[in-house]
Amino acid sequence: MQQITLNFDAGLSDGYSSCREYVASRIYRQGRPQKAIAADMDYSPSDLSRKLAQSPDDSRRFTLDDLERFIDVTGDTSPVLYLVEKYLSKTDRIAQLEKELERLRAVG
Q: What's the N-to-C CA distance of the chain in angstroms?
């Protein structure tokens, strides 16, 4: 079994309000043309752009299946790390605060 190290310093989730926004930024910074990534995901470039734009009036949405397909075709697992950082670091922070509260109660 392979182990990974997670770093919860300011990072992946700080500049993006959603994982979809993060994935969009990764697509634009992959170093491969967007049309190549779209083709690998079985989308036209315009269809992928519509999904990533997430316009409220557009029925084309970036789904969890799209996220999995993105990871499969690019090998980029950083969206998973984005989600871990965004949600598990909060859980870890709450646990740290609860321990600190217990310590303070024991002292006082």
A: 44
> The pTM is what?
0.71
Query: What DSSP state is assigned to residue 3?
Result: -
Q: Which residues contact 34 (CB under 8 A, 6 or more apart)?
A: 27, 28, 45, 48, 49
Report how far residue 77's alpha carbon sits from residue 92's, in angstroms, rounded to the nearest whole number: 21
The pLDDT assigned to 54 comes to 85
Span 35-87, pLDDT tens digits: 999 999 999 999 999 999 988 888 889 999 999 999 999 999 999 999 988 88
In Å, how far are 1, 50, 105 from 4, measured between CA atoms? 10, 34, 35
Q: What φ, ψ does residue 73 adopt, rounded to 5°?
A: -80, -25
